[in-house]
């Protein structure tokens, strides 16, 4: 097993994410689909960066590669000073468990578990003691404004509340990076904005870096930077004024 090891250089001077000439193709011959075509960018520590683009532009493929859920056809990814290509599958699994939190459009909560138990799942996988899991879960639910809903199950919560639980779960192992794929896609515009404001607050309070894919232009003003992906390429990069 190749364990993720941070680079020996001072990582505080390195970007949290460094993507260089990243390429990803699917299929072979005439049926080859080029999902990413030489993408390069960096994400600074403690930064909220938004990826925008239409469906099929390559945003989700890019997030999966940065999160170590998929391997590129070419190019390189460094996360927190670690070259992902240097890791085997066990090493990538350890990286995801220890350094990355994921938030998905579909929430991904376990229906039979309470909100607190869902938040504690990453800690359970790490074999953390029950008392530590419970304390961390309640701290994080308070952070996302759900301290009074710890014992409710997902079916008893609204969509916005479920996504707040998912964000709390993503923070359970104190990750360096949160990757969020269309986290407001199933929510109304007002609830979606509150979720983006929560991610903005998490960046400030927890010191975590967030890379989020969204197609909603009204939410991009809360990001530090906006990167547009079109047909597998970056075509535009904007600095935004965070609210």
From TrEMBL:
The lineage of its organism: Bacteria, Bacillati, Actinomycetota, Actinomycetes, Kitasatosporales. InterPro entries: AAA+_ATPase, ABC_transporter-like_ATP-bd, ABC_transporter-like_CS, ABC_transpr_LolD-like, MacB-like_ATP-bd, P-loop_NTPase. Signal peptide: none annotated. It holds the Pfam family ABC_tran. This is ABC transporter ATP-binding protein. It comes from the Bacteria. Keywords: ATP-binding, Nucleotide-binding, Transport. The keyword Transmembrane does not apply. GO terms for molecular function: ATP binding; ATP hydrolysis activity; transmembrane transporter activity. It comes from Kitasatospora xanthocidica.
């Amino acid at each position: 097993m190749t364990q993720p090891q941070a680079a020996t250089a001072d990582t505080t001077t390195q970007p949290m994410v460094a993507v260089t000439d990243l390429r990803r193709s699917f299929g072979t011959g005439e049926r080859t689909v080029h999902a990413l075509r030489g993408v390069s960018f960096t994400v600074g520590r403690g930064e909220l960066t938004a990826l925008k683009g239409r469906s099929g532009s390559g945003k989700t493929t890019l997030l999966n590669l940065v999160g170590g859920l998929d391997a590129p056809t070419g190019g390189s990814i460094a996360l927190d000073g670690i070259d992902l290509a240097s890791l085997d599958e066990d090493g990538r699994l350890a990286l995801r468990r220890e350094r990355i939190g994921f938030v998905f459009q579909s929430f991904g909560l376990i229906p039979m578990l309470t909100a607190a138990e869902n938040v504690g799942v990453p800690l359970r996988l790490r074999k953390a003691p029950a008392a530590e899991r419970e304390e961390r879960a309640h701290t994080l639910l308070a952070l996302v404004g759900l301290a009074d809903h710890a014992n409710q199950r997902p079916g008893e919560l609204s969509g916005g509340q479920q996504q707040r639980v998912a964000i709390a779960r993503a923070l359970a192992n104190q990750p360096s990076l949160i990757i969020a794929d269309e986290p407001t896609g199933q929510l109304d515009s007002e609830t979606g904005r509150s979720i983006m404001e929560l991610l903005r607050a998490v960046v400030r309070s927890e010191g975590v870096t967030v890379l989020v894919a969204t197609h909603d232009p009204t939410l991009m003003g809360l990001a530090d930077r906006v990167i547009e992906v079109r047909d597998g390429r970056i075509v535009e990069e904007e600095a935004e004024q965070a609210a």
